[in-house]
Design a protein that fits this description.
By secondary structure, this protein is an alpha+beta fold. 52% of the residues lie in helices and 21% in strands.
Length: 380
């Protein structure tokens, strides 16, 4: 797998973050589930204790024998298999009168006796959860329980005691945590698989885009290389053409020429431009011009040596008098000489940037609309 480092790093980061969040979530969800369970059990135990207390009080008030009343209570509380809350009855001396485990009747429950004077009238599920969470149950504590409520039977020495079955509740508490842990593990693995799929898709898309971009860049570099090679060839051809024209003009002058030839010479492009430097008129040879540009409505002519002059004519007027083989109108702001072009580089998506000798004071950008005509100008 070529991107194994990405997958390993993603797995480590995701595992650390997810396990931390899952641990917190499992504890929170399990706690809320147990608290909800305890609230329901407390309410159920409270109602059942009140019913037994009320029925027993009514029976005793009707002069029903106490032994019969206690026997009836014993029958109603015997089945506690799997319950979280169960009831018992003690007398004021702490003796067990009724208990789900009938073998304990007549004995004293040490835990009950200790809690008779300390238990709250109404214990909350939050308090009970805190107690259970901190409780350490021994292996042999098969019937571990705790008192959560006492209800006295009116006009008697009997007390209905509500117990919580710690073994059952702690077992359910552990089951909740185990169940949610398994769910989070499965969910984490599922998310990890989906995450790997997304990463694979994104990385493949990224590498494909990168390869396409690299291919386009290679094509652009190749085109630029061709363009710069054409620039060099064009500059050489122009130099050869100029030498040939100079020889022809010289021969024409020596031969005397005729009126037609003289008229043709008049129509040739200008060899000099009249410029100003301060208040002094200064003719500048066409061959010495690097570029001509417009700034703040003023036309500037820059020579190859970097000196700058001003001209009264507009760029349009100057360009119309120049040899189009030697000068190119890059944009509305600048005209550049073929001899001044040092390098052509890519600019943006379809535009070109010209670097000159000397370096231009402004960027010479050939827009995508003129790029094709510039390439044709270089005979590309």
């Amino acid at each position: 797998m070529k991107n194994y480092k990405v997958y390993v790093l993603t797995t480590l980061v995701f595992s650390v973050v997810y396990i931390s969040l899952a641990f917190i979530a499992v504890q929170f969800i399990a706690k809320q589930s147990v608290i909800l369970l305890l609230e329901n059990e407390i309410q159920s135990g409270k109602q059942r204790a009140k019913q037994i207390s009320m029925i027993s009080a009514n029976a005793l008030a009707a002069h029903v024998d106490k032994a019969i009343v206690v026997g009836g209570i014993q029958k109603s509380i015997e089945d506690i298999n799997g319950v979280n809350m169960f009831l018992s009855v003690i007398d004021w001396s702490g003796n067990i009168v009724s208990y789900p485990d009938i073998t304990k009747v007549g004995t004293k429950d040490a835990a009950t006796n200790a809690m008779v004077t300390n238990v709250k009238k109404d214990i909350t599920a939050e308090d009970l959860y805190t107690y259970i969470d901190n409780y350490s149950m021994e292996e042999d504590a098969l019937e571990a329980s705790e008192v959560v409520r006492l209800d006295a039977i009116p006009d008697s020495d009997l007390i209905v005691v509500t117990h919580i079955n710690l073994k059952n509740v702690i077992t359910k508490f552990d089951n909740f945590k185990n169940r949610f842990s398994v769910i989070f593990i499965i969910l984490g693995l599922l998310i990890l698989v989906i995450l790997f799929g997304i990463i694979r898709y994104v990385t493949n898309y990224y590498y494909e885009a990168l390869e396409q971009k690299s291919t386009r860049l290679e094509d652009s570099m190749l085109n630029l290389s061709k363009l710069n090679a054409s620039l060099e060839n064009y500059q050489k051809n122009i130099a050869i053409e100029k030498e040939r024209q100079a020889k022809e003009e010289e021969e024409a002058i020596h031969e005397g020429g005729n009126s037609a030839e003289e008229e043709a010479i008049k129509d040739l492009p200008k060899k000099r431009l009249l410029t100003y430097i301060r208040n002094e008129l200064m003719p500048v040879s066409i061959e010495d011009i690097s570029y001509i540009y417009l700034e703040n409505t003023i036309t500037y002519i820059v020579r190859k040596d970097g000196k700058r002059f001003t001209a009264n004519d507009s760029l349009d007027q100057i360009y119309s008098s120049l040899d189009e083989k030697l000068f190119f109108r890059a944009n509305r702001q600048i005209i550049v000489s073929i001899y001044a072009i040092d390098k052509i580089i890519k600019f943006g998506n379809n535009s070109l940037k010209i670097e000159t000798r000397p370096t231009s004071e402004i960027d010479i950008i050939i827009g995508k609309n003129k790029a094709s005509s510039f390439k044709q100008w270089l005979d590309l």
